[in-house]
Structure formats: C-alpha cells, structure tokens
Amino acid sequence: MKTIDIFWDGPGGSGKTFLYSTLLSFIRGKEDIALPFATTGIAATLLKGGRTVHSGFKLPVPVLDTPLSSMRPTSPEADKLRQAVLISIDEITMLTKDGLHC
After folding, report:
1. Partners of 35 in the beta sheet?
2. Where do the domains of the chain lie?
3. 51, pLDDT greater than 90
4. What average pLDDT does range 38-44 have in this prediction?
5. pLDDT of residue 68
6. What pLDDT does 67 receive?
7. Which of the ends of the chain has fewer CB neighbours closer than 10 A, N or C?
8. pLDDT at 91
9. What average pLDDT does this structure show over 2-30?
10. What angle (nearest 5°) sits at the alpha carbon of residue 92, between those of residues 43 and 44?
C-alpha cells in the first residue's frame, strides 16, 4: 500500500484540528480505520477517539535516548495500526526526535 506523509502547519485557531476531525469522519464514514493521536492529553481530547502518542504507540515515559516501544508486533494494537488508512498526530512538533523514531 502506498503511504503519503503530510505535515500541516498553522497558527492556533487556523483550523488544523477541524481539518483532522473532518478527515477522520470522512474515512470512518467509509468504514475504514482512522486513528487520531496527539502529543498531549488535552489535544487528544479534542479528537473523537483521540489518544496520546505515548498511549497509542506504547512509548516509554519519558522517551530516552535509546527509545523502544513496548508494543508487540503481533498485538491487536499493532494490527490496527497496520490496517489504518489514516494515522494523524496533532501537535507533532511537540514530539521529540527520539519519540518519532521509537
């Protein structure tokens, strides 16, 4: 399956979360899997079904220099990530490079 990475940037109040919510609704309306994540709990609550990146990807807290996710490749969570049509991460600029590599 072809993947596309898209980065949306804009000042607060410019509609980024609205855009995420619209995309999530559209994809879910087609019975596909869309998984919203955010770097903070507050941002995650603004998205239907939103979770923190640490929770969704089983990242350690804090993320160390040699980060490893505790998610097993054969787990139901890993399977759901593989099946997702959209994985969005709101406030991704708040995620450290180690967290992104994890």
Report:
1. 87
2. 16-101
3. yes
4. 91
5. 78
6. 67
7. N
8. 85
9. 87
10. 20
Query: Mean per-residue pLDDT for 5-32?
Result: 89
**Dihedral, CA atoms, 62, 71, 4, 63, nearest 10 degrees?**
10
Residue type, 24: L
Could you check whether the bond before residue 62 is cis, i.e. omega within 30 degrees of 0?
yes
Residue 74 CA neighbour count, 13 Å, CB half: 0
pTM of the model: 0.83
Strand order in the sheet with 34-38: 51-52, 34-38, 86-90
Alpha-carbon torsion, ordered 6, 35, 81, 64, to 10 deg:
80
Cβ–Cβ under 8 Å, residues 83 and 75: no
Q: Are 39 and 92 in contact (CB under 8 A)?
A: yes
Please report the pLDDT score of residue 52 as a whole number. 92
Instruction: Give the phi and the psi of residue 2 in degrees, each rounded to 5.
Output: -75, 135
Locus of tokens 């979770």 = 51
Q: How far apart are CA 63 and CA 95, in angstroms?
A: 10
